[in-house]
Every structure is written in structure tokens, then in C-alpha cells.
């Protein structure tokens, strides 16, 4: 099969690596039923990484004739008798408009359809995004028949995360194996040395005093090795301290020590009281923080400023996220999922605090749904889907949260019952990606 360079501007380059077959046409039929068959249209379209229906439709639009591509047989037909050179020139125009990058001219591009129904070409070589002229007739056909998209970036992210975790596990297992081998080798050398010393001790030339010294050293070495494995602990309880003071000191000094221990007990009691007061103060502080968060959300503070504000709050991670969820969605009844999508930037800023914050966010949303009306509970699956699509929650964390919460016969609870369809979809998608 004769090949040619893709793009008329690259026809003179003998080393150009992007090639396509030369067009072969065949005129079929007579009279009003005459048609032009592009015999190798499937091979040309494959080389251009575009559906063959696009090129066939383009010929029909430019020539003002009816065109049809049969998916089953792979035949491309255009009504009327048309010369090969004319169709080849139209194909060059198609390549310039819908294949080559507008920035670098590379034909390795991908068709993207934006939310506003605009067509773009994303170049894999230079990364330039080209805007296609929407006045062309073919654009409406492309929007109605979008190209098959490649695997999503989320699947790639999930696969990369899994591979990373697998590497970490393998590394930890290798470290453990290395430690065991070192311990076994140490024990083997000590056993060998002890057997050698015993053999030498049985000789007649060896003096009894010298053999006793060697045996003592051997016992010390073994004891040292045993001491490495043993963790010595001192009983620091009050009763043990009293017992030791009675054994070691005289009656008078023991009484003095007892006085000091009583003073320590009093100090400990006062510390517990002050900690209780601090906890009560912390709860009131969280209440004031709730009001502060509400005012900042109303003002429309940016996600970065909000993140720094959240980091300045004292309290556990669960308390912080729970207060945040309450501030964001207080009074929301219907349209809970829409509100989550609107305020996802704040949730993303909160989740970026640490690694385990995704589970914390899920538990906070769970508590909020339980406290609020039944309408929020009905939209749990939509909320999970919105947060998953926004890359705020990962599938592993969602599945872990669901499995932990629905244990022990709790699956009939409304929150788990309403979450189940999304979890089933997530697990089926995961199994499909693993099979692929």
C-alpha cells in the first residue's frame, strides 16, 4: 500500500513519521445512481485518528452531495462521479481544519467538545488547544456524533495511586525481611562461636581458669542479646512508689516522701479540673468559630484564605470539619447536592489539610444528614458523586467509609440504603478497570 505524509506542507520531508495511505476511489453505478466509493477510507481515517464517518460527511458537505458511511461494511460512498485528485484536495482541507494542530502543525491531536458545545483540538506534542471554526457545516455533525473518548484521567489517577501503594507495601515487606535476616545471621554467629568455644574448652592444653573466663564472656554475650529483645519497664504507680520508699528509707524519711506524693496528687487533681474548664472553653470557642465561618462564607472569601482560617482553629480535625459543614449547609433542605457543588471549593480546601481528612469529611456529612431533614438523606448518592467527580473524594475512601458504617446489620439505615447505588456503581467501575 502506497503511503504519503500527512499534510501537504510535509510532502517533501522524506523522514516525516506521520503517514497515511494514498486515496483510492472507484466510481460505481450509472445515471442518477452513480456514486464514488472511497475504497480505503477506513485505513485513511485510522491513520488520521478520526472516525471515517467524519471524512465522508465532510466530502458530502463540501461537494453538496449526499454521503454515507456504512459502519458494518466499512464502505464510504459519495453521490456523483468525483475525481480522486478533487477528493484528495478536500481531504487536505479536512486535515488542516480537524487534524493538524494550529500551533505546531503536528497531526497528533484529540477532538474535545466543551460544555458550551465548542470543538477544540488538543495537541499531544506541544499541548496547544486549537479552537475549530464553528461556522463549518461538519461541526454540527461532530457535536451530534462525538468521538469515543479515551480512558478518563480519574482511572489513570486511581491506577497510579494503587501502584504507588503497592510499591510502598513491597518496600515495607522487603525491609521486614531484611531485619529478620539480620537477626537470624546474628543468632547463627553467636551459636557458632559458642560451639567453637566449647570445643576449645575440652582440649587438655587449655587451662581451667582460661576456660571459665571464656564461658563467662559467652554467657554475658547471650544475656546482652536477650536484653536487646526485652523491654524493661518501671512500675511508676503511686502504690509502687510508696512500697519502694518504705523499703529504702527510714520511717521519718518515708513520711516525708509520703507528704510529697500527697502534694503531687493534689496538683494532678487541679490539672484535671483546669483541663475540664479548657474543654468547656473549647466548645464555646468552636461556637464562635461557627459564626465567624458563616460571615466569611457570606462575604465570599477565597479558598486559600479560608484554608488558612481553618488551620488557625484549635480543636480536633473532626470538630473543625463538622463545624465547617454546619456553617456551609445550615438550613439547606432541598437541593443539598447543588449546594455541595456550589461550595465545593471550601470542601476541597478543608480536605487539603491532611491525608485522613477525606474520611473526616465523610463522617461530618453523615452526621449532618442524620440531623437534617429526609430530603438531605435522599441526596446522599448525588453528593458522593459530585464530590467524586470534583476529585475531592477518592473511591477508596468512599468505599472504606461505607463498609465501616454499614457493618453489623446497619445497611437498612437510610444513609447507607441511599448510598448503596453509587457504591455499587463505583465498585463495578473499579472491577471493569482492573479487567481492562
TrEMBL record:
Q: Name one GO cellular component term.
A: cytosol
Name one process (GO BP) from the record.
formation of cytoplasmic translation initiation complex
Q: Where is this region: Disordered?
A: 143-229
Compositionally skewed regions (Acidic residues) per UniProt: 215-229
Q: Which InterPro entries match?
A: ARM-type_fold (IPR016024), IF2/IF5 (IPR045196), Transl_init_fac_IF2/IF5_dom (IPR002735), Transl_init_fac_IF2/IF5_N (IPR016189), Transl_init_fac_IF2/IF5_Zn-bd (IPR016190), W2_domain (IPR003307)
Q: Which domain of life is it from?
A: Eukaryota
- Is Protein biosynthesis included in the keywords of this UniProt record? yes
UniProt biased composition (Basic and acidic residues):
147-179, 200-214
W2 domain: residues covered: 276-436
Q: Which UniProt keywords apply?
A: GTP-binding, Initiation factor, Nucleotide-binding, Protein biosynthesis
The GO terms this record gives for MF are: eukaryotic initiation factor eIF2 binding; GDP-dissociation inhibitor activity; GTP binding; translation initiation factor activity
- Biased composition range(s): Basic residues: 180-199
Q: Name one Pfam family in it.
A: W2
Q: Any transmembrane segments, and where?
A: none
State the similarity comment. Answer: Belongs to the eIF-2-beta/eIF-5 family.
Designated name of the protein: Eukaryotic translation initiation factor 5
Species source reads Ziziphus jujuba (Chinese jujube)
Name of the gene encoding the protein in the UniProt record: LOC107417120
Amino acid at each position: 500500500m502506497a503511503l504519503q505524509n500527512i499534510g501537504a506542507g510535509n510532502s517533501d520531508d522524506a523522514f516525516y513519521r506521520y503517514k497515511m495511505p494514498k486515496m483510492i476511489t472507484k466510481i460505481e453505478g450509472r445515471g442518477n445512481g452513480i456514486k464514488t466509493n472511497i475504497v480505503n477510507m477506513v485505513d485513511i481515517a485510522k491513520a488520521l485518528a478520526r472516525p471515517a464517518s467524519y471524512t465522508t460527511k465532510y466530502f458530502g458537505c463540501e461537494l453538496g452531495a449526499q454521503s454515507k458511511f456504512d459502519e458494518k461494511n466499512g464502505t464510504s460512498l459519495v453521490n456523483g462521479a468525483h475525481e480522486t485528485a478533487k477528493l484528495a484536495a478536500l481531504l487536505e482541507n479536512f486535515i488542516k481544519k480537524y487534524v493538524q494542530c494550529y500551533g505546531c502543525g503536528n497531526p497528533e491531536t484529540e477532538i474535545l467538545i466543551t460544555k458550551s458545545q465548542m470543538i477544540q483540538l488538543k495537541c499531544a506534542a506541544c499541548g496547544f488547544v486549537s479552537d475549530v471554526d464553528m461556522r463549518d457545516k461538519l461541526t454540527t455533525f461532530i457535536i451530534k456524533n462525538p468521538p469515543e473518548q479515551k480512558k478518563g484521567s480519574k482511572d489513570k489517577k486511581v491506577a497510579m495511586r494503587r501502584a504507588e501503594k503497592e510499591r510502598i507495601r513491597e518496600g515495607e515487606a522487603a525491609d521486614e525481611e531484611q531485619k529478620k535476616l539480620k537477626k537470624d545471621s546474628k543468632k547463627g554467629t553467636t551459636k557458632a562461636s559458642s560451639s567453637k568455644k566449647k570445643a576449645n574448652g575440652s582440649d587438655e592444653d587449655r587451662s581451667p581458669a582460661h576456660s571459665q573466663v571464656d564461658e563467662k564472656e559467652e554467657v554475658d554475650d547471650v544475656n546482652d542479646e536477650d536484653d536487646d529483645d526485652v523491654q524493661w519497664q518501671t512500675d511508676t504507680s503511686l502504690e509502687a512508689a510508696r512500697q519502694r520508699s518504705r523499703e529504702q528509707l527510714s520511717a521519718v524519711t518515708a513520711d516525708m516522701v509520703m507528704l510529697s506524693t500527697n502534694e503531687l496528687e493534689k496538683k494532678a487533681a487541679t490539672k484535671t479540673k483546669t483541663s475540664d474548664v479548657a474543654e468547656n472553653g473549647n466548645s464555646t470557642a468552636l461556637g464562635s468559630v461557627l459564626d465567624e465561618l458563616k460571615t466569611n462564607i457570606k462575604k465570599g472569601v477565597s479558598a486559600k484564605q479560608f484554608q488558612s482560617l481553618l488551620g488557625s482553629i484549635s480543636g480536633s480535625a473532626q470538630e473543625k470539619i463538622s463545624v465547617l459543614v454546619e456553617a456551609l449547609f445550615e438550613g439547606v433542605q432541598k437541593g443539598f447536592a447543588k449546594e455541595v457543588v456550589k461550595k465545593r471549593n471550601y470542601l476541597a480546601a478543608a480536605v487539603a489539610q491532611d491525608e485522613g481528612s477525606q474520611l473526616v469529611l465523610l463522617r461530618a456529612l453523615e452526621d449532618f444528614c442524620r440531623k437534617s431533614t429526609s430530603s438531605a438523606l435522599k441526596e446522599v448518592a448525588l453528593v458522593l458523586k459530585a464530590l467524586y467527580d470534583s476529585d475531592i473524594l477518592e473511591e477508596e475512601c468512599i468505599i472504606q467509609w461505607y463498609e465501616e458504617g454499614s457493618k453489623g446489620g446497619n445497611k437498612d439505615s437510610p444513609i447507607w440504603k441511599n448510598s448503596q447505588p453509587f457504591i455499587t456503581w463505583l465498585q463495578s467501575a473499579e472491577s471493569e478497570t482492573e479487567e481492562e
